[in-house]
Protein: Tubby-like F-box protein
Amino acid sequence: MSRSRGFLCSFSGSSIDLFGEQRRRLRDEVEAAIEPERGEDAASDAGMEENRWSRMLPELMADIIGRVESSEDRWPLRKNVVSCACVCRRWREITTGMVGSTRETGKITFPSSLKQPGPSELPIQCFIKRNKKNSTFYLYLSLTQTFMDKGKFLLAARRVRRGYHTEYTISLDADDLSQGSKAYMGKLRSNFLGTKFMLYDSRPPYDGAKPSNSRASRRLASKRISPQVGTGNFEIGQVTYKFNLLKSRGPRRMLCTLHCPAGGKPAAAAAEGHHSPTKTAMGGTASSIVLKNKSPRWHEHLQCWCLNFHGRVTVASVKNFQLVAAADPNQAGGGALEEDTVLLQFGKVGDDLFTMDYREPLSAFQAFAICLSSFGTKLACE
Structure:
């Protein structure tokens, strides 16, 4: 045994290849040389496949996509419309042009639909699931009229305590809720008392918008891939809860101010409310829409404050609210008027289940952020 070991050790460092190391190294070099050629062939095949689909007659493509779009108007069948947009660039252009905006169709199809205003006629019905263990909230699109369906996942948010502030990070990915993720949509940031929340968007809401001067915004800006597309935290609104230091009876009182481009036509209900233009730092023009919670009525028999949620809310909670357009004080007699059209309603139906119904001028992203502000204890407001 010692002789054989000494025999092997005597060849250490020599050019003799006892275990085939030279053959393996040569094989690896050959495979490394062949691998780029395989990659080029695969890319060439993918390009030929895409060209084959893109060379179809525009009339034929429009007919195929139109049939799919009209026949499969509900999830989960609507995923086939998204598949049509993933074929190639020409198919994507025709599909997005044929689907239309959420305001016109009342349908949520692409991720961009989550930041488009909802329809003006009937609200889009959604629900929120809360996970208390990891402080995570999930937004789903309701597929039926019951509260038991699984729904279509839309957005996720996680509550994180940062010093004296609380932040809700909103993402398209339920598993990746970091601000550095490509699925990052925006965030909601509260003050120490939880009475004021600032809403930030990951994309500029209008031309010339400047991101907030914060550490997170600078970190996002340094990670952006395309210099043509701005990335950061752009302030688009705030939610304020009024103090109730005297502890008078009644629900929470809240006021929402949302900033939007002046070119975006607001809803008729919001137009009758407070809608005033403001100048931005870059010379652009943005408009502000002010919403407030609808005043409930006191029910003598039940001895509680009541609002008509039309069966969408079943559990009494201080978190329940309805938002309407605030009257414009600049209009004659407008201060005494209140718009009856509910633009957003949020309420409890289970231990960790809440409904959320929104319409124009709110988007799903804005409505979800406003509802997130209702979670948590607000000692100075109750």
About this structure: The chain has two domains: 58-99, 124-372. The domain at 124-372 is CATH 3.20.90.10 (Tubby Protein; Chain A). Residues 21-54 form the longest helix (34 residues).
